[in-house]
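Quick start: what a row looks like.
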Amino acid sequence: MNEWNTRCKSFILLSLVRSFALSLFFFCTTFAQSRTEGIGPANSYYPVHNFQDDFQVYDEATKAYVPYIVEQHADQTALSTYIDLESNRHYSLLISTRKDGYLFINAALKRKLRAGQWTVLSIDSLFRVYRQPEIFLTLYGAPGLVDKNLFIGYPKSATQRPVVLRDDNLSVRPRPVSMYTNFLGLGLLFLLATHAFLFAFHRRAFLRFYSPRDFFSLRAQEESFLINRPLSSTNVLFVLNLSFVVAYLIIFIQSRQLDVVVSRRLFNEQSLLYILQEFFVLGVIAFIVLMGKYVALEVIGGLYKLQSSINLHFFKVLQSSMLFYTILTLFLVVIAYNTGTMSWSEHILIIPLLIFYAARLAFLYIVIRSQEPIKNLYLFSYLCIVELIPLIIGLRFAL
């Protein structure tokens, strides 16, 4: 009897082990197939996230969205979910329905979904359009969850090759050189040439603009040719030079894999000529923004009756910007060329910018307050409009 019990136990244990092994085999096989086959059109995308368990439906009784439950909501034709755009940048949104349906984003109809066809949407494009960290997406069509497929995917590389181990572990290959490397050197030479030109032909103005002692001086020379004529050819040349410094700094930060703009499509790193073209385009944009600021100062200053301090304000803005951006650019370039393995983060740029603009706002308040008998509330409102609010908006769109 004991021998019979022992055999039964051994048989049951062996059966359990075989069942577990077969289950593990089929699970691994299925998982491997799903990973290798891919999803989307022509199975050309890797699945990052499947929204099958994230759908919600609108409940009339509670007047709110509730999680989708098959037993209760099998006849629902509209399934909704939230899409996190900010955390899934550079990925794609893949949508497919077995029957014709419709796609709604934030309760607005966007397109018709053809049966059996994949719709691919770039999450970067959605982020640029809606300017929101997440969107509310609704799929309307045939009832049930089986009809609808919603994924976040990443495209497979067309040049991807399997990794093959070889005996020769040591191989000598040329180090890949980024197109930015050539541009950063040429850009520094260009900025050196422009600064040398300004120093040679406009030495007096150069020494005035790049003088920290003159910047911190509260006794401004109102009759100075730089302050009294803000749109003179000399001032315009220095503004243009500052614009190219800002453009160089933007491309330098972008070369460190930090997104200065929302999408990296502006910086495709196609060729050196393409990057040079972007450099001059960014320089022209920065020049237009700086000159447009003087127009804004004239308009806002007229409303607050500060006409006598507008030119001084604009001069101090240019003077501080030239000192700060030139020093910041040289500092970052020296760090980059001496620490090749350094890990760059957004704080390297954001923290100095916030400190600089906050300090400049306080300094401009002191300078203008010493020149104008105006109420503190008016002056603070004026500075917030022309200095603080553009900074907040610029950081919001840049980050």
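That is the whole record. The chain has two domains: 43-155, 179-398. The first strand starts at residue 45 and ends at 50.
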